[in-house]
Amino acid sequence: MSIKLIVNADDFGLHAGINKGVIDAFENGILRSASVSPVGEAFLPAVEYLQSHPKFRVGIHLSLIEERALLPNHLIPTITNEKGFFMPWYSSFIKNFWRVNVEEIDLEWRAQIERVLSTGIAPTHLNSHQHLHVIPPLFRLIQTLADEFSIPHVRVPAPGILDVFSGGPKMWGLKILSEIGIVGSSGKARGSSIGMKGLKQSGHLNEKKLCHILQNLKPGVHELLCHPAHPDFHMEKKYGHWKFEWEKETAALISPQVKQIINDRQIMLTDFSALRDS
Q1: Is 126 helix (H, G, I), strand (E, B) or coil?
Q2: Which residues contact 254 (CB under 8 A, 6 or more apart)?
Q3: Residue 93 lies in a domain
Q4: Helix or strand or coil: residue 57?
């Protein structure tokens, strides 16, 4: 059985600096897929690039925090403030989830999906910013939306057992909630058959860490989560609180040493269409 690897960058379209890093990693590195943010300030330039590069496959990175929603506040008052912005961070969203109307999330996520579809792009997958879709009601919702819009894959962000034991509470939470989602869907959750890599290293996937992941991949299909970018002052000011090492991730994705390991191990770089043949 072969090793197939989907190297997928999140946050495409969120900022011009992220777009630059994603494009660099695609044109000069091992990146083969991205997740585009419909609420991002650089969404339209990202779409223009995708339309001119059809071999670069893309999915949708659904958002519920940090950015301005597509819908006005009066339609989704429990998930936005009066200015139309989502809650500032995933911790505040989780803390206030008890008062959130999931029907409003349904409306907003539909608007985000439809914005991408209106550009003529055929998304290969769905996921969400900070993996908020693992919350059980949202896991059911995203699976329903994938079915309705005929989007083939949904990320199930379940870290491997070693990452769970060494990665702290967030890794435990992702693992437990992902398994709850899979069980709740009677094992039919889109994405439950694919291995997730890079969750523990998210935002800090340097060359050494990436080489270690590649050297230990088992046969099957895996998604490698990454966040390449070439940040400028504005991006650092807006997203510096993430404390991501964007440049190091970009450098890792175009590293000759990384490419050599992929070649030596005969790892097949692909996109989410690989799931149809796995």
Answers
A1: strand
A2: 24, 25, 28, 29, 30
A3: yes
A4: strand
